[in-house]
Amino acid sequence: MNTVENEFLLTAVGLAGPAPQGGATSWAAGVLRQGIMAGRLPPGTRLSEARVSEVLGISRNTLREVFTVLGNENLLQRIPNRGVSVARPGADDVREIYRVRLALETSALRWTAPGPQPGLHAAVTAGRAAHGRGDVGGMADANQRFHRTVVELAGSVRQNELMSRILAEMRLVFFSMRQDPSFHAPYIERNARILELFEQGSQEEASVQMHRYLEDSRQQLLTVLEGPGAP
Questions:
Q1: What pTM was computed for the model?
Q2: Distance, first Cα to last Cα, the chain
Q3: How far is CA 105 from the centre of its chain?
Q4: pLDDT of residue 199
């Protein structure tokens, strides 16, 4: 682990406080998950069992449980003879992620009664502001907030939990485009249009537009992952 990852872990532990008794696995998984979602533990980062357990103040056995939890969420991968590292999602992962997103997001728009959506408006406003100042990370954050809020329309705890895991994986997918404003910018106004349709009571059309939106995003990512110079 390099200095940046060490600093992140030390800061995160300082903010979160000591691991609670009886809940160390969940707590530590949350610390690492947040690091991945924030881009502080990028794809390919090797996680030293000795160092991470020391910084987090947990046993190696507990850390192995944490690695299993995050591995099941597709955020970490264990490579024989090389240890554990942050996952690098590939084209097949993107296809699977988008199959889930298409089901979650289009159904939430189609079957939820329309009405004022301050959370979605806030995400659109944040995206426009980030675009105006050339903040790629801010655009990505606002876009993820928009999609998370869309799924929350369904009012399902299980769907929200699944979307949280999906968005964490998406952070890893987007990492290679973290400095490219042209990827995120066009979707800001598409978010606004979907919101407008939904609030007008055109749930079916909002769902159709989201389907097209996600298909376009998926294809754009696959072009990067499978094209010349692919990471």
A1: 0.84
A2: 21
A3: 15
A4: 96
| Domains by residue range for the chain, with CATH | 3-86 (1.10.10.10), 91-226 (1.20.120.530)
Tokens of 94: 């993107």
Rg over CA atoms, the chain: 19
**pLDDT tens-place string over residues 142-179:** 999 999 999 999 999 999 999 999 998 998 988 866 66
DSSP letters, 37-102, are HTTSS-TT-EE-HHHHHHHHT--HHHHHHHHHHHHHTTSEEEETTTEEEE----HHHHHHHHHHHH
Q: Which residue in this structure is represented by tokens 């769902």? A: 207
Cα separation, 100 vs 207, whole angstroms: 15
Alpha-carbon 69 to chain mean position: 16
In the predicted model, residues of the chain with pLDDT beneath 50 are 3-4, 14-15
